[in-house]
Model the fold of this input.
Amino acid sequence: MNRRVLDDLLHELSRITDERELVMVGSQSIHAVTNDVPIEVVMSRECDLLLDESDSLTGVIDEGFGPDSPRAAETAVYVDTVSSTFPFLPAGWEQRLVPLAPDLPHIRCLEIHDLVLSKLVAGPLKDYELIAVLLDRKLADVGTVRDRIVAVPDLHMRAILAARLQIVLESAAR
Done:
Protein backbone atom coordinates (compact mmCIF):
# COMPACT_ATOMS: atom_id res chain seq x y z
CA MET A 1 0.00 0.00 0.00
CA ASN A 2 1.15 3.51 -0.59
CA ARG A 3 2.01 5.82 2.30
CA ARG A 4 -1.25 7.76 2.23
CA VAL A 5 -3.31 4.57 2.49
CA LEU A 6 -1.04 3.26 5.26
CA ASP A 7 -1.30 6.54 7.19
CA ASP A 8 -5.10 6.54 6.86
CA LEU A 9 -5.23 2.96 8.14
CA LEU A 10 -2.90 3.68 11.07
CA HIS A 11 -4.64 6.93 12.06
CA GLU A 12 -7.97 5.09 12.11
CA LEU A 13 -6.39 2.26 14.08
CA SER A 14 -4.86 4.76 16.53
CA ARG A 15 -8.32 5.99 17.48
CA ILE A 16 -9.34 2.57 18.78
CA THR A 17 -5.96 1.76 20.36
CA ASP A 18 -5.79 5.12 22.16
CA GLU A 19 -2.40 5.66 20.51
CA ARG A 20 -0.91 2.68 22.33
CA GLU A 21 2.57 1.79 21.10
CA LEU A 22 2.36 -0.69 18.23
CA VAL A 23 5.13 -2.49 16.35
CA MET A 24 4.94 -2.97 12.58
CA VAL A 25 6.92 -6.03 11.48
CA GLY A 26 6.15 -6.61 7.79
CA SER A 27 7.10 -4.97 4.53
CA GLN A 28 5.17 -1.79 5.36
CA SER A 29 8.02 -1.08 7.81
CA ILE A 30 10.01 0.09 4.80
CA HIS A 31 7.92 3.28 4.83
CA ALA A 32 9.96 4.27 7.92
CA VAL A 33 13.19 4.50 5.89
CA THR A 34 12.15 5.87 2.50
CA ASN A 35 9.39 7.75 0.75
CA ASP A 36 10.24 5.85 -2.44
CA VAL A 37 9.14 2.38 -1.37
CA PRO A 38 9.54 -0.52 -3.80
CA ILE A 39 6.52 -1.61 -5.84
CA GLU A 40 6.49 -4.85 -3.81
CA VAL A 41 5.51 -2.79 -0.76
CA VAL A 42 2.91 -0.75 -2.64
CA MET A 43 1.31 -3.94 -4.00
CA SER A 44 1.03 -5.48 -0.53
CA ARG A 45 -2.44 -5.12 0.97
CA GLU A 46 -1.51 -5.99 4.55
CA CYS A 47 0.03 -4.20 7.49
CA ASP A 48 1.57 -6.65 9.97
CA LEU A 49 1.41 -5.63 13.62
CA LEU A 50 3.09 -7.53 16.44
CA LEU A 51 0.55 -8.40 19.16
CA ASP A 52 0.27 -11.34 21.53
CA GLU A 53 -2.78 -13.51 21.00
CA SER A 54 -3.66 -13.02 24.68
CA ASP A 55 -3.76 -9.23 24.27
CA SER A 56 -7.39 -8.09 24.27
CA LEU A 57 -6.55 -5.55 21.59
CA THR A 58 -5.77 -8.39 19.15
CA GLY A 59 -9.42 -9.42 18.88
CA VAL A 60 -10.57 -5.83 18.51
CA ILE A 61 -8.08 -5.16 15.71
CA ASP A 62 -8.81 -8.47 13.97
CA GLU A 63 -12.54 -7.78 14.03
CA GLY A 64 -12.34 -4.15 12.91
CA PHE A 65 -9.28 -4.17 10.66
CA GLY A 66 -8.42 -7.81 9.90
CA PRO A 67 -8.56 -9.51 6.49
CA ASP A 68 -12.17 -10.62 7.04
CA SER A 69 -13.42 -7.29 8.41
CA PRO A 70 -15.99 -5.11 6.63
CA ARG A 71 -13.31 -2.38 6.49
CA ALA A 72 -10.97 -4.69 4.57
CA ALA A 73 -13.77 -5.59 2.16
CA GLU A 74 -14.38 -1.89 1.56
CA THR A 75 -10.78 -0.67 1.32
CA ALA A 76 -8.89 -3.82 0.19
CA VAL A 77 -6.23 -3.22 2.87
CA TYR A 78 -6.08 -4.83 6.27
CA VAL A 79 -4.13 -5.34 9.47
CA ASP A 80 -2.69 -8.76 10.17
CA THR A 81 -1.91 -9.25 13.85
CA VAL A 82 1.04 -11.57 14.35
CA SER A 83 2.34 -13.12 17.55
CA SER A 84 5.90 -12.48 18.67
CA THR A 85 6.53 -16.20 18.14
CA PHE A 86 5.60 -16.02 14.43
CA PRO A 87 8.16 -13.85 12.69
CA PHE A 88 11.84 -14.49 13.26
CA LEU A 89 13.16 -11.52 15.19
CA PRO A 90 16.92 -11.35 15.82
CA ALA A 91 18.29 -10.58 19.26
CA GLY A 92 18.21 -6.89 20.08
CA TRP A 93 15.46 -6.03 17.60
CA GLU A 94 13.50 -4.11 20.24
CA GLN A 95 16.34 -1.62 20.72
CA ARG A 96 16.60 -1.04 16.97
CA LEU A 97 12.93 -0.22 16.27
CA VAL A 98 12.47 2.98 14.28
CA PRO A 99 9.52 5.37 14.41
CA LEU A 100 7.28 5.39 11.36
CA ALA A 101 6.67 9.14 11.32
CA PRO A 102 6.62 12.17 13.62
CA ASP A 103 2.81 12.30 13.49
CA LEU A 104 2.63 8.60 14.45
CA PRO A 105 5.29 8.35 17.19
CA HIS A 106 3.54 5.38 18.80
CA ILE A 107 3.98 3.27 15.63
CA ARG A 108 7.45 1.79 15.50
CA CYS A 109 8.85 -0.42 12.77
CA LEU A 110 11.39 -3.16 12.45
CA GLU A 111 14.79 -1.81 11.51
CA ILE A 112 15.45 -2.68 7.86
CA HIS A 113 18.15 -5.32 8.50
CA ASP A 114 15.99 -7.04 11.13
CA LEU A 115 13.18 -7.03 8.55
CA VAL A 116 15.51 -8.67 6.01
CA LEU A 117 16.37 -11.46 8.45
CA SER A 118 12.70 -11.97 9.23
CA LYS A 119 11.94 -12.18 5.50
CA LEU A 120 14.82 -14.62 4.93
CA VAL A 121 13.31 -16.96 7.53
CA ALA A 122 9.79 -16.64 6.09
CA GLY A 123 11.12 -17.84 2.75
CA PRO A 124 8.47 -17.13 0.08
CA LEU A 125 9.82 -16.04 -3.30
CA LYS A 126 8.15 -12.64 -2.95
CA ASP A 127 10.21 -12.02 0.21
CA TYR A 128 13.44 -12.88 -1.59
CA GLU A 129 12.48 -10.50 -4.39
CA LEU A 130 11.84 -7.74 -1.86
CA ILE A 131 15.20 -8.37 -0.17
CA ALA A 132 16.96 -8.18 -3.55
CA VAL A 133 15.30 -4.82 -4.24
CA LEU A 134 16.23 -3.49 -0.79
CA LEU A 135 19.87 -4.47 -1.34
CA ASP A 136 19.91 -3.14 -4.90
CA ARG A 137 18.49 0.23 -3.81
CA LYS A 138 20.98 0.34 -0.93
CA LEU A 139 18.13 0.57 1.59
CA ALA A 140 19.75 -2.44 3.27
CA ASP A 141 23.44 -3.26 3.42
CA VAL A 142 24.56 -6.83 2.72
CA GLY A 143 27.44 -6.52 5.22
CA THR A 144 25.06 -5.55 8.01
CA VAL A 145 22.73 -8.41 7.06
CA ARG A 146 25.67 -10.82 7.25
CA ASP A 147 26.71 -9.38 10.63
CA ARG A 148 23.18 -9.95 11.95
CA ILE A 149 23.24 -13.52 10.62
CA VAL A 150 26.56 -14.22 12.35
CA ALA A 151 25.01 -12.94 15.61
CA VAL A 152 22.20 -15.53 15.49
CA PRO A 153 23.03 -18.00 18.28
CA ASP A 154 21.32 -21.04 16.72
CA LEU A 155 23.87 -22.56 14.31
CA HIS A 156 21.20 -24.30 12.25
CA MET A 157 19.23 -21.07 11.81
CA ARG A 158 22.44 -19.20 11.03
CA ALA A 159 23.23 -21.69 8.23
CA ILE A 160 19.72 -21.39 6.81
CA LEU A 161 19.89 -17.59 6.82
CA ALA A 162 23.33 -17.54 5.19
CA ALA A 163 22.22 -19.98 2.48
CA ARG A 164 19.05 -18.04 1.75
CA LEU A 165 20.93 -14.75 1.58
CA GLN A 166 23.33 -16.35 -0.89
CA ILE A 167 20.37 -17.47 -3.02
CA VAL A 168 19.03 -13.90 -3.04
CA LEU A 169 22.44 -12.49 -3.98
CA GLU A 170 23.01 -15.01 -6.75
CA SER A 171 19.54 -14.52 -8.17
CA ALA A 172 19.96 -10.76 -8.17
CA ALA A 173 23.31 -11.05 -9.97
CA ARG A 174 21.72 -12.81 -12.96
In short: Residues 155-173 form the longest helix (19 residues).
